Each structure stands twice: as structure tokens, then as C-alpha cells.
Amino acid sequence: MREIGIGIIGGGYMGKAHAVAMSAVGTVFDTALRPRLEMVAASSPESAERYCAAYGFARGTGDWRALVEDPRVEAVVIAAPQETHREIADAAFARGKPVMCEKPLGASVEDARAMVAAAEASGVANMVGFNYIRTPASQFARQLIAEGAIGEVTWFRGEHTEDFLADPETPFNWRCEGAANGTLGDLAPHMVNAALALLGPIASLSVNMETVHRNRPGGRVDNDDQAQLMCRFARGTMGQMHFSRIATGRKMGYAYEITGTKGAIRFDQEDQNAIHLYRAEGPEAARGFTRILTGPAHPDYLPFCQGPGHGTGYQDQIIIEARDFLRAIETGETVWPSFRDGLEVARVIETARASAHEGRWLDVETE
Amino acid sequence: MREIGIGIIGGGYMGKAHAVAMSAVGTVFDTALRPRLEMVAASSPESAERYCAAYGFARGTGDWRALVEDPRVEAVVIAAPQETHREIADAAFARGKPVMCEKPLGASVEDARAMVAAAEASGVANMVGFNYIRTPASQFARQLIAEGAIGEVTWFRGEHTEDFLADPETPFNWRCEGAANGTLGDLAPHMVNAALALLGPIASLSVNMETVHRNRPGGRVDNDDQAQLMCRFARGTMGQMHFSRIATGRKMGYAYEITGTKGAIRFDQEDQNAIHLYRAEGPEAARGFTRILTGPAHPDYLPFCQGPGHGTGYQDQIIIEARDFLRAIETGETVWPSFRDGLEVARVIETARASAHEGRWLDVETE
Amino acid sequence: MREIGIGIIGGGYMGKAHAVAMSAVGTVFDTALRPRLEMVAASSPESAERYCAAYGFARGTGDWRALVEDPRVEAVVIAAPQETHREIADAAFARGKPVMCEKPLGASVEDARAMVAAAEASGVANMVGFNYIRTPASQFARQLIAEGAIGEVTWFRGEHTEDFLADPETPFNWRCEGAANGTLGDLAPHMVNAALALLGPIASLSVNMETVHRNRPGGRVDNDDQAQLMCRFARGTMGQMHFSRIATGRKMGYAYEITGTKGAIRFDQEDQNAIHLYRAEGPEAARGFTRILTGPAHPDYLPFCQGPGHGTGYQDQIIIEARDFLRAIETGETVWPSFRDGLEVARVIETARASAHEGRWLDVETE
Amino acid sequence: MREIGIGIIGGGYMGKAHAVAMSAVGTVFDTALRPRLEMVAASSPESAERYCAAYGFARGTGDWRALVEDPRVEAVVIAAPQETHREIADAAFARGKPVMCEKPLGASVEDARAMVAAAEASGVANMVGFNYIRTPASQFARQLIAEGAIGEVTWFRGEHTEDFLADPETPFNWRCEGAANGTLGDLAPHMVNAALALLGPIASLSVNMETVHRNRPGGRVDNDDQAQLMCRFARGTMGQMHFSRIATGRKMGYAYEITGTKGAIRFDQEDQNAIHLYRAEGPEAARGFTRILTGPAHPDYLPFCQGPGHGTGYQDQIIIEARDFLRAIETGETVWPSFRDGLEVARVIETARASAHEGRWLDVETE
Ligand SMILES: NC(=O)C1=CN([C@@H]2O[C@H](COP(=O)(O)OP(=O)(O)OC[C@H]3O[C@@H](n4cnc5c(N)ncnc54)[C@H](O)[C@@H]3O)[C@@H](O)[C@H]2O)C=CC1
Ligand SMILES: NC(=O)C1=CN([C@@H]2O[C@H](COP(=O)(O)OP(=O)(O)OC[C@H]3O[C@@H](n4cnc5c(N)ncnc54)[C@H](O)[C@@H]3O)[C@@H](O)[C@H]2O)C=CC1
Ligand SMILES: NC(=O)C1=CN([C@@H]2O[C@H](COP(=O)(O)OP(=O)(O)OC[C@H]3O[C@@H](n4cnc5c(N)ncnc54)[C@H](O)[C@@H]3O)[C@@H](O)[C@H]2O)C=CC1
Ligand SMILES: NC(=O)C1=CN([C@@H]2O[C@H](COP(=O)(O)OP(=O)(O)OC[C@H]3O[C@@H](n4cnc5c(N)ncnc54)[C@H](O)[C@@H]3O)[C@@H](O)[C@H]2O)C=CC1
């Protein structure tokens, strides 16, 4: 057990989540490295000071470079907007500091490509914050598919839908401009990552995308409100996805259904402690989808609670990420999902956007 | 109250369903016309005899022409395979007899077009058997959308998925050959009809279709196991659909979700007596999807039962159809869905098939 | 196949349900006896005339004795209020006519006892209308328990809850007076019958009962709004029940959960086409409640539909009853639930009422 | 922001949960007092050392007295078995140290009474660990009832059911002996506390209790496997409860349904991020139970996540408790649930046990 100084850039939604995770992860997982909240950076000294006090960091700064360069900061978490990811990561890697970067990996596929190069050149730990796939339920889904529990996979449907911009009267905000902040740029990466993790590479796709609410109080929206796609996985499976920020009624619509020749899986993040499994075996009269509550028998659940069905939550996903990031730093081994995995996602998103513009099927190029 | 002699062609799955419906409809709905099970036709005199006895018809015949021509048969129900629909309908209309035809309307868009022409030339009642949209729940969904209860519609997702051919070891049968008997030809019409009924015409679509299990014991499959589509409705709404007969675990996966600016609707035929409605109104803390159990307050429920939540079933949908068919005969008014509505569906299916072959977006032509 | 003349007394909620069932049952089940709607009796000639026309009976009468005595009426269905059951049944049995009587069996345990005596003396078919236990799902639950699929049964919880009198402003009506029309008298019999069918006799019980809304517009309520009980089954299992007509939000709250050493069953009539089964076997990680949709693999489903998950409804339960009643008449065999089964229920209800008044545990006497 | 040294007695299931909570609470809630994991006590020096290292405490001890007396330990958390609660609490209060004690409050009502006296004599913060009622959903339920959202409450049903001893072959362990470790002693307190929090005092009750599996490999069970009760709340409401550790299939069956004249609430901890609310208002056709996903609009949710529906878990409940305990220490104000609240629960449990033995209704005495 050794302490490690953590610097977090950003103290908003995700900056706080990572600060909590770093506070708790050692106790939850008995990690070899024990985080110390060393420094937080924000867009101004004042907000940095506020986050510093609220979350219990030793110091705050209005300049992320100061954080990256600080000798007591031994690992960097990037929880600032996508436009900042690349420059920060470059600076951290240049100093040989491990980086955990929030999704998406940069604001474009070029960013992602450059970030992978920098990460791999530095040789230090690098990881992307795809947290939803970390639930015990979704980890279990991966296991089931890998083990062949549902046979040969014949269908995938995924969605990431929320309704935070469903009301056309919701005022214009930063999420309303820039491709990286639209639905494809901001929400889709989570589900695309899930699709890749569950079924492997996507070979080709055809996308339809649109801005439903073009005008909002305060500004004109220039990015997408929703998108859908049809795709073909490299393994041959047919797939379908939908991404939306105007899905009225959906709060955390990260959901998938996966069908195989011998069974099927259904999952919805709005009931994240359950996974539904169908198996085409045994007498017909007893078949159906089984609602399995996660518990100690499922991946990464036990350290949170000894009782099955007692449940984990959003914050726990980030704690699981922190455990892996620390392990990567400690062991020097690559951890999933690395920047390279983030780049795979970025390439799918890029191709999706191109397909939407051209209105036709496109292959997803391999690097 | 006047008796009417009914002739049903086919005594299998749907032939029986219509025979039951004709037996019960008068008592359920106090119809002006009261059906008399006059005659049943099947592919052989023997099976006709069996159906005749089992269902309680006055007579049976191995020759559908005998049925159509019989003076005591005053209205014809076609519950034989799609390939037979056109010829039978033509013959019935030629004799001025009303026709209720099972879905799809013929085996091709040409069939459908010819059948509409014959129906309209004859001027007698004509109707297509899209029964699922008849549940009190789906009728209520139509009402809600028409009234604007969920605002401007921004998204539609529909599926018709079952698993009767999910097992690759299930032997080859007649559903495994001929486009009209594949997933797009056989299952899709129900959901396409629903989409049209709920949201209006589809302007364009892009389809992906495949045969997952090409070889089965007993033969080589030449039609589609599953298909998916992206579409744009004429009203501007983005849509997505999926059709499958290999959806392991799905028994009656006729399901849709419809999102609007002020609310959303979710329905799944596997829980046909409930509909889920979200309304973006009232305090945030009290919002969510409301599971509404159908009851006397919903369309066509009361005649089946005075108690809410007591439920209707598959057979009741056919009884509701029978009520409308009798009403059309009695009043001479067009009833929904008429052959023309069946043709609209056929055109979408035809365009879908073309899109799948060409691998690109196509417009759905209007006649 | 032989016709049989049916006389139904009562043309309200249940009278109509039985009329529909008698119209459809022959076609659905290919019964040896085929009902003919011969006569309907109501409280006045006018209403009888209305029912006669609406449901398609040959004749109507304001005097139930005329019906019972009519030679063309070969079997009698009692669908009039509980106070009338005994007298009508007596008259029918005296003429050797089979009787299907709506639940409860008479207005008191004395009625029930006398009715059993009359039925058994006559030797003709007799049956009580406990319809809910007839769903394919509940029949399957019976099978599962009988086969030991959930091991030794350790717990039973049942409820029959609805909300038709939940609003204290709902005006006084006939259900508001007379023990036989209160919650214990009117609703409880269904669930008590289910409990007996599923687990066998109840040995003892302790009951709590109350009238929540004593005054209603139009009158003072003299019977119970809700009741609950703890019980011990003769097989040793602990049980719990709840009955309510003021259960706001519950429309058809006929629900039970049954726990055993090797599994558990959950059922709710508000989702009548599904049953939830847990089995304590296989790997821990894959256990959970399986939502089984009823289909052709379950009792009495196939005659209604060939497709699983397509669903049956309230009316279909009555059709299943009709099939059994006809079979009993045809074969002369006792059919479940006979009047004797209705008496078992009546004795439990009677003991429950006594326990509620005395505020203590009472044994349920065996005859 | 000031540091406070925390000593935790017990490092098992709950000892760890509190250690995690104390690590995270400051960052989550920006508390005025910031916990420092000062010392952990266990039943042996070795296990204490293990916990110390794993969870990140400064020191460990095999003697809880050393912990209580340590000057750097400023507040004590008791997470050892019920038999130890009283002695430890007494010692801590004697030194003027605040105590957070896991449920139940001691091993008997005498313990609880003595502990309240000691706590009140000391005048320092005291709190009992009823965590399940802390979810945003259950806190919201309390609010709804208090505000009259469901009108006058007419019915309460609660259960706390799990299946950790459902298999009769599960070997004998400490939970199998001693009233305090049986189902009534161990599980019931959570739901009784919920009942009191939601509806207020229980006036009287009648209980039925049993040991289903008397013999287990390794020993003879002397306490209860399951119990049920009927009760009357002081406000007049009728209630029903069930507690079980042999409820096959139930993992976290902490569930309740509360009915009122204007609405109803349903909650099940196995889906802890949702609460179901029915309101008897608006058009009949749109009524039903609304599944509300918890989010920033609900109590104590926002500090965990800005997104609604993203979910909290078991561990987060303990973090909320820690926040309140720290607040109580800081402000000197009584916090809910205090030892006095724990005593209320203990009195109900005691009366329940007496009722079970006497087999009759008993009043719950007020102190
Ligand atoms: N994994 C997940 O579930 C989620 C991930 N995200 C991702 O996390 C990242 C941050 O998003 P949110 O936390 O939602 O944003 P936010 O708006 O809540 O917070 C952004 C933070 O970045 C800081 N910041 C902005 N520019 C900066 C600069 N130049 N130097 C230093 N600090 C700067 C701001 O002061 C603020 O503290 C984004 O990349 C976003 O895509 C966001 C939400 C959920
Ligand atoms: N609305 C719905 O839910 C469903 C509709 N259908 C439709 O109903 C129609 C019939 O399908 P099923 O009942 O499933 O088929 P089936 O195979 O169960 O029965 C077909 C019947 O048609 C009769 N038949 C075949 N050729 C004939 C001929 N030349 N002359 C007279 N009778 C002939 C056969 O004897 C048999 O009785 C099809 O168009 C199908 O698409 C089928 C199933 C469900
Ligand atoms: N199995 C079930 O799900 C249900 C069973 N029931 C039972 O069915 C029976 C009838 O109840 P509902 O149909 O709800 O009542 P209802 O009030 O709807 O109809 C009662 C019918 O009985 C007739 N009637 C009354 N007194 C008569 C008399 N002296 N002679 C001839 N006809 C007379 C009335 O004219 C009316 O047609 C009751 O025993 C009730 O407990 C009622 C509802 C549901
Ligand atoms: N709120 C909740 O959800 C739950 C509460 N509990 C309660 O928490 C308490 C502890 O239960 P668990 O954590 O499940 O037990 P456990 O068996 O997992 O751990 C008990 C701990 O107490 C320690 N201990 C035992 N005797 C001791 C002594 N004399 N001195 C110092 N340490 C001692 C042991 O070393 C062990 O670390 C009990 O009162 C129990 O009722 C337990 C589980 C869940």
C-alpha cells in the first residue's frame, strides 16, 4: 500500500465523480496504490478553490498546466470538456504521467489518433472513462456472450437515450454547438463502446441523424439531437442503434438487447442492478426471460456489498474505473478500455457522421 | 337483428380464430347482423369436414369456389395462405360479396393493387385482418397521438419479433420459401400497418435484410429471417423498425415506442392489457412512465368486461374485427383497415424489399 | 355433437359473460355438447327482453321459475345476486337440471350447505364460477406445485384487491350492505378458492376486518371494505391474505406469491398472461425469477391461439368454465370446482368472519 | 472543514461499509467535519490488522475498549454483533463520544432502553443504522405521505424477505441461535422502522412466527425463520407485514405498498431507484402507477449524480447516514433515527415476539 497523488482537471459533473471515486476506491478494493486528492484544476482560480474545499483536495488551480507539472501530482484525470482532452493528455504524457480521460477521447478522430500516439509513445497507463459498461450486470453480459451462453449472436440493438434537451424551450447551452457535443459526439460513444465490448468490431454502418429543435431560446443549435444507425458487426451480426437527447421520458436509456441462437440478453441502465437472460433450453413451458439481480456472484459486486440484490449505483461505476486505473499504474499493464479502445469508438463515430452526411452505407476503416 | 351467412376459407390458425369470432361477436357487441357459420372451405374435403364439425359450420367444402358461389354464403372471410387471397377475393367481389381478408393483402403489391381495384369496383365491404392494432391499448395509443397528448411526435420505434424459427434445427416448412412468407412479407405488415395508423404515411426508408439460417433440415431457405429499417414519415418523424422470426425469447414481440415533445408512449403486445404513458408535465419529482391498465375507459373494452384490468386477449381482437366487418356490410360504409389500407402496407413492404436489395434509401411512391 | 338448451338467470356483468362463453365454447373447444342460448331471465320482463335481443337468446322472462321449468332449458347458469342462488339452484336440481352457479355459493354457509345437499341428492352436474383460477398461468401454477417444482411449500401470500369503492364519495349501492356483499363475502372467495386449489385446506386463521368508509352519499355502509388474515394450511404452510375494494390503484389485484424450499412462484392477474418462476438450481449467477409467457405449452391455451405470448383474457376464463360444465353434463363426472368446493370456500369465509368478530385464531371446522 | 477521528468496531459486512462511507462522505456532501479513519477494532488483533490495512485505517486493535478510550478517536461506529452494542455504547457515552450504532439497537428491549438512557445522559450525538429508509426513493415516499399526496392512508403492507437460509442444507451458523439473531430480531427492525417512519406508531399487533427448518447440518436452530403480523397503526391504519430469511428467490425483499384514499405508493428495494405512485386524479383512462426514477429532484440524490435515473446503490445509503451522523456531531442536534427511534423499533419487536408466543393481539406499550 503506497499513496499516490491524484490531480483532477475539472470539478463539475465528472470531476466530482472522480474525486469521490478516488476517496473511496482504496477502502472498497484494498488497492495497492492509495489515492491522495492532491490537486484540482478548473477554468478559474475561484472555482478551483471552491472544488478544492468541497471535495477535500490539498490544492486548487485555475491553470491545468500547473497541475500537470506539479511534482506531487503523479496521475492525471481529465474531466474537462472534450476540446481540452488532447492538449492536457499530451502535456501529461510528455511528463510521463498516467492519464485517465473522460469519454469521448478528444473532440475528433484526429484528437483521438494523436492521443493514442502520445500515450503509446509515453508508455504509461492510459484509460478512457466508459463507465456504464462497468456495472456488474454489463460485465456479466460480456461474460455470457464470451462463454457462448446465448449461442451464436444474431442481433444487437442498443440505445443511449436521455431527455435533457427534449423540451424545445430548454435554453441553448454549450451542448448545442459543435459536433463533439451533439448526440453522436457526446452520448453515442458509451453505447458504441458497449457494442464493441460485447460483440467486437463494427464493419459497416448506415446512419440517419437530425436536429429536431433547431432554435432554442438563446441560440441556434448546430449539432444533432438524435441519430440512428443500422450496422453489421465484423463477426457477421446485424445491429441497430439509437441515440437521443430528446427522448422524452428516458432518463438513463442506456439499453441493449442481444439475441443469439440459444438465448438472449436484455439490459436497461434504468434498472442497472438487473439483467434479463433467456435460455432456449429445458421444457418449453418453463422458458422465459429470467430477471437476475446482481450480487456477489457477478463481477466486481462483492467489494461493494455482501448481500445480493442490494445494488450498486452510478458512483460505484467510477470507483471500479479508478480501481483499474490504479492497477494499470501499479502493474504497468494495459487496462481496458485504453486510449486505443477510445480511438476505436471515435472511428465508428466519425464514420457514422460521414454516413449520415452521405446518406449511405460506409465501411468502418481499420487503422 | 338479422342473420348473415358467413363462409370462411381456411380452417387453420386464423380460420378457427374467425370462426370463434363470428360465433361470439353478436353476443359481445349486440350487432345488427348476426353471423351464422354457414360454410368452411379447406384444401381438401376431408379437412373441410373436420373443421365443419369442430367449429360448428353447417357445411364444409374442399373447393373454395363452391363456398364463394353458395347463395347462403353472404360474406367471405379469407384465412388461407397469401397466394390464394387475390383469386378468392376477385371471385367474391364478382358476386358482390363482402370480403374480410387476412393480412397481408395478397402475395405481392400487384396482388394488392388488383384486389383494391376489384373491391372498389364491386362497391362492397372489404377489410384486412390487422388484428393487433385492435387491442384497447393500441386503439388508445392512436387516440393519444391524434389528440396531441404527447405533443409533436419526434421518434418511432417498432418491432414485430417472434422466435418460431430461432432454432436452426427447426425443419424447413412453407414459411421458408417465397418472399411473401418471409419476415418482411409475413410479420412486417402488422407493424407497418401500426406505424401508418399511428403516425401516418412513410415517405422514405432504408432497409437491411438477411437470412441467418440458410440451411434447415429438409430444405434450403430462400426468404428472410430478419430485417430492419430506418425511415422518415411524411409528417417528418424519424423511425426505426425491426422484424424477426429468429428473435430467441420473443413470443409476441409486437412492440413500439413513440416519443413526442410533450410525452411518450410505450407498448409491448407481450403485456397487451397495459400501455405506458409519460407526460412531461407537473413537478419533475413525480414524472415517470405510467402503466395504464386498459378498462372500460378505453376503446372497445367495455363489451368484453365491466371491470378494468380484467383483460382482453388475442381472440378478442378478432371479435373486434368481426364487429367492424359486420358494421361495414350493414351500413355500406368503408371500414378501417380497408383493402386500400392493406395496399398502403404492401407498397411499403415492396419498397422495403427493393431498398434491401439496392442497399440504399428509397422513397415510398404514392399511387 | 349434440345441442343443449341453456338458460341463464341474470343478464348483467356475469350473465353476459356466460352468454358469450356459451356462444363461443363449442367452436373453441370442439365440445360434444353445443349450447343453444335458449332463455334468459332477469328481474323484470323488460330487462329480460333487452338481454334476449342483445345477446341473442331465443326467449326472455322476468320470472326465473319459468326459465327453470322450461322444457327446452336443459342446463341452468345462475348469474344473479348471491341471495337468489339457493332458491334457484334448489328448483333446478328438483327438476334434475345441471347448474353452474356464480361465486359465492349462496349468501351464507347455510345456503352453501343446503345447495350441496340438493346438488348431491339430484346427482346432476354442479359447478361454481371461480374463473380466475382458470387462466393458463394459474393452472400451470397448480401443476408446478403439485409436481414439487418449488419443493416443500413454506409460504403463501394472496390478495384480491380492487378499487371500485376507494373513493369515499362513491355513492352507496347494494354492495354496501349485507355480509355476503362485503369484501369478505364478495371478493375473498376467489382468492380463498385459489389458496385451497394451490395448497389444500386451511386449518386455522386469524382475521382483521374493517369498514373504512362508513358513510357514503346515499347511505350507511354495513359491511366490510377490507380484511386481512394470517392462516395455517393443513399441510403446515404459513399463509397471509388481503382483500380490499378500496385498494386505490388496484384494478384486478388477484395476486399470489408462493415460496417453497426449491423455488417460488409469483402471479398477478393484472399481467394474467405471465407467471414468474424462480428455481433454486444451476449457478447462483444465473438465478432469478423467470417471466414465463403462457402459450400452447400451458393448460387450456392452445384452443385459443397457436402462438405463445399472444394472450388470453377475462372472457376466455369463462369459456374454459363453460367447457368443463358441458363436459360434466355430458360425462356425468364431477367437475372442479363443484358445489362442494364452493362450500369449502364458504366455510373458510364464515370462519374468517367469526375470527374477525372474536379477534382471535379459529380453526376451520371440517364438515 | 475540520477533521474528526473515527473509530469503527467491526470490520465485517457493515464495518467495511461504514469505512467506505467515512472515506467518501466528505467529498460527496461537502461536510463540515471530515472523517479520518483513525482506528478499527475486531475480535482479534490479527483480523483488526487485516481490516486496518485493507480499509486504510491508521491503527487496528483486538480490544474495542482501547478504541473507545483512544483520544484520537472522536466518534464511534458500532458494527459488531448485537450482543456487543450496549456495552460498547455505554463505554463511549461515558467518555462523551458520539455513537453511530448498527441496527438493531442492542440485543433486547432492555439493552435498547439502557442505551437510550446512556445516550441521553451523555447528551452527545447518537444514531441507529437503518439504512434502507435512506434511499432517495424511500425518503420521497415519506415526503409524499406527509404532504397528503395519497390522501388518508388506509393500508400498509411491508416485508423484509431474503433467502440466505432458504436451503435447509445451509449449515448452522450464529444467525441460527438467539432471538436477537432470528428473523424478527435481525431483519424485521428495518421494515418496522420504515413503517414507523412512514405511518407513525403502531398501536397493536398480532403475530405468527415459526422455525421452518429446525435442523441444519451442524446444529439445531433455536430462533425464527419467518414471521408475519397484522397490525393497527395509532393513526388508525390497518397494516400487514412479513419477515423471512427463507424466502427463496428474494434477495433484497424490502418492499412496501401504501394505499390512501387519493393514491398509492409501491416500492421494492430490488429496484431501489424507482418508486411507483398512483394518483386518483385526472381522466380515468390515463390513470395507473407511475414508475418514477429517482433523480436530482428527490432527497439526497443530487450529491451523488447530476443525471436522473443514473442511480444510487447500497453503499450510498451508508454515506447518507454518515452525513447525518457528522451533522449531528457538528450541530449538537438530534438526528433521525436516534437511539430513541431505535428503542421504538425494539419495543415493537418485543411486543411482536410476545404476541407470537401468546397467539393473540397485544398493544404496543408506550414508554
Ligand atoms: N462518463 C460519463 O458518464 C460522463 C462523462 N462526461 C464527460 O466528462 C467531461 C466533463 O464533462 P462534465 O463534467 O459534464 O462538464 P462540467 O461542465 O460539469 O464540468 C467541466 C469542468 O471542466 C472545467 N474546465 C473547463 N475548461 C477548463 C480548462 N480549460 N482548464 C481547466 N478546467 C476546465 C470546468 O471548470 C468544470 O469544472 C466531458 O468530456 C464529458 O463528455 C460528462 C458527463 C457524464
Ligand atoms: N392476423 C394474424 O395474427 C395472423 C394472420 N395469418 C394469416 O392468415 C392466413 C392463413 O394463415 P394460417 O391460418 O396461419 O395458415 P394455416 O396453415 O394454419 O391454415 C391455412 C388454411 O388454409 C387452407 N387452404 C390452403 N389452401 C387452400 C385452398 N387452395 N383452398 C381452400 N383452403 C385452403 C388450409 O386447408 C388451412 O385450413 C395467411 O394469410 C396468414 O398470413 C396467419 C397467422 C396470424
Ligand atoms: N366470477 C366473477 O368474476 C364475478 C362474479 N360475480 C357474481 O355473479 C353474480 C351476479 O353478479 P353481477 O353479474 O355482477 O350482477 P349484476 O348486477 O350486473 O347483474 C345481476 C343480474 O341479475 C338479475 N336478477 C337480479 N335478481 C333477479 C331475480 N330475482 N330473478 C332473475 N334475475 C334477477 C338482474 O336482472 C341482473 O341481470 C353474483 O353472484 C356475483 O357475486 C359478479 C362479478 C364478477
Ligand atoms: N444495516 C444493515 O444493512 C446491516 C446491519 N447489520 C448489523 O451490523 C452489525 C454487524 O453485522 P455484520 O457486519 O453483518 O457482522 P460480521 O460478522 O460481518 O462482522 C462482525 C464484526 O464484528 C467484529 N466483532 C465481533 N465481536 C467483537 C468484539 N467483541 N470486539 C470487537 N469486534 C468484534 C468481528 O471481528 C467482525 O469484524 C450487526 O449488529 C448487524 O445486525 C448487518 C448486516 C446488514
Automatic annotation (TrEMBL), chains A, B, C, D:
InterPro entries: Gfo/Idh/MocA-like_OxRdtase_N (IPR000683), Gfo/Idh/MocA_oxidrdct_glycsds (IPR050463), GFO_IDH_MocA-like_dom (IPR055170), NAD(P)-bd_dom_sf (IPR036291). It holds the Pfam family GFO_IDH_MocA_C3. Keywords: Oxidoreductase. Residues 5-130 form the Gfo/Idh/MocA-like oxidoreductase N-terminal domain. One of its GO terms (molecular function) is nucleotide binding. The keyword Oxidoreductase applies. Gene3D superfamilies: Dihydrodipicolinate Reductase, domain 2 (3.30.360.10), NAD(P)-binding Rossmann-like Domain (3.40.50.720). Residues 140-266 form the GFO/IDH/MocA-like oxidoreductase domain. Coiled coil: none annotated. The keyword Oxidoreductase applies. This is Myo-inositol 2-dehydrogenase. It comes from Limimaricola cinnabarinus LL-001.
